[in-house]
């Protein structure tokens, strides 16, 4: 028999960070598209307006990333526990979760991962979030800071291979963010109802079914 329970999964600082960050990244993707392809995209009036909004969203995302890191490292102190995949996650968990998303989910099998506050992400989420939050976000922020300060930081830019390489890398990482966004939103709809995983991102509380489906 399946039992339902409410667990407090997402603390308020993480929720505030998440929606500020999501809004910022979406703004960055849209303004970035206008900056990169001005002949096809013109949503913000002038080219200069798109750059100004892009830079502002970049600063918001950078500051909120700093607060997110501070919160997980020094207040919650759960960054390693929550975000780093275990050996078992790498050996079997990734495969198990992949089979669930690509196959078992469509036949109504339960999710192999049970979320708890100490282990809230399944192995695929851990791998993806770790890559996004601790590799790609720092890289896109660092390259963005360099691009916003080409003159004062020219020495660093030359050391890293030049402006062309920097612009190309910044764009490539931005494309990865767009790909992540679509996958992230799709996978977030695979709860017992399409909005089951969105609710805890607003309220903090997630409804969990023991020995039944849950994310
Ligand atoms: C409109 C855009 C977005 C929507 C609708 C959205 C939706 C969600 C939802 C429903 C969850 C909770 C379920 C889950 O853990 O999968 C979540 C968690 C998460 N999302 Fe997003 N997301 C968006 C953008 C982003 C972006 C741009 C990033 C990173 C750059 C991101 C990173 C994360 C992370 C790291 C978590 C786990 C947070 C934690 O509990 O520590 N999301 N998102």
* Number of continuous helical runs: 8
Q: Enumerate the strands of the largest sheet in spatial order, edge to edge or round the barrel.
A: 1-2
- Terminal-residue CA separation: 18 Å
Number of strands: 2
CATH architecture: Up-down Bundle
**Uncertain stretches:** none
How many domains, as an integer?
A: 1
The CATH H-level homologous superfamily: Transmembrane di-heme cytochromes, Chain C
Instruction: Return the CATH topology.
Output: Fumarate Reductase Cytochrome B subunit
| Structural class label | mainly alpha
Principal-axis shape equals elongated
Provide the residue-averaged pLDDT: 94
Q: How many strands, what sense, and barrel or not for the largest sheet?
A: 2 strands, antiparallel
Q: What sequence of helices (H) and strands (E) makes up the elements?
A: EHHHHHHHHE
Helix content: 55-70%
Q: What's the alpha carbon Rg, rounded to whole Å?
A: 19 Å
Strand-residue proportion? 5-15%
Bound molecules: protoporphyrin IX containing FE
Oligomer: single chain
């Amino acid at each position: 028999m399946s039992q339902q329970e409410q667990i407090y999964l997402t603390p308020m600082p993480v929720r505030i960070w998440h929606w500020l960050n999501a809004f910022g990244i979406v703004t960055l993707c849209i303004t970035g598209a206008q900056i990169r392809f001005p002949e096809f995209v013109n949503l913000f009036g002038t080219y200069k307006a798109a750059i100004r909004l892009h830079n502002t969203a970049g600063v918001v995302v950078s500051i909120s990333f700093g607060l997110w890191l501070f919160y997980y490292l020094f207040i919650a102190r759960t960054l390693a526990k929550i975000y780093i995949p275990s050996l078992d996650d790498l050996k079997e968990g990734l495969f198990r979760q992949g089979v669930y998303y690509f196959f078992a989910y469509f036949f109504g099998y339960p999710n192999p991962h049970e979320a708890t506050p100490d282990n809230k992400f399944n192995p695929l989420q851990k791998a993806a979030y770790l890559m996004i939050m601790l590799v790609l976000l720092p890289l896109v922020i660092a390259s963005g800071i360099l691009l916003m300060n080409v003159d004062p930081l020219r020495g660093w830019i030359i050391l890293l291979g030049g402006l062309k390489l920097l612009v190309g890398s910044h764009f490539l990482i931005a494309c990865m963010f767009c790909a992540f966004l679509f996958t992230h939103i799709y996978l977030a709809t695979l709860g017992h109802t399409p909005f089951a995983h969105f609710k805890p991102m607003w309220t903090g509380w997630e409804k969990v079914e023991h020995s039944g489906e849950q994310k």
